[in-house]
Amino acid sequence: MARVAAESTIGGLVKRLARPEGFSALRISNPSSSDVIGSEGGGLSLLLRRWATKKAGGSTQNGRDSLPKNLGVKKSGGQKVIPGNIIVRQRGTKFHPGNFVGLGRDHTLFALASGQVRFERNRFTGRKWVHVDPEGGIPIHPVYQDMKIATKENATSENVAA
User: Fold this and answer.
1) Most buried residue, 12, 59, 74, 156, by CB count within 10 Å?
2) What is the value of pTM for the model shown?
3) pLDDT, mean over the chain
């Protein structure tokens, strides 16, 4: 019996909506709808009401960073180095390669001989140089090894003999 009543109510609603007056002639009376907040427009307003929703959050534009490049002086003045040790990592040539120091393609300065690191600054140009003082002193080129060192004693003895 309840099923027949429900069908007749739904069928009656469809027939009333099909009339030319449409929704304006539709009256819905429900005693419990007056208890609902915001139901001043009747039961139909509950059907057409937009409820509160949460929009999807967008992604942030911050929050990304590059990896550290680890630039700077790696061996300070007076420290011992072996060939291949990195002395300075830099962008551009803030420090210039001096004696027994090589320059990499990314401007990294590295030791070419074992010894101690020495930093130098030119007074006139302000340019900074990095040197490695080799252990045992600076080697003499083979061309000059056999030459005698001119001293005052050698020079005076040669002048007297001549």
Assistant:
1) 74
2) 0.54
3) 81
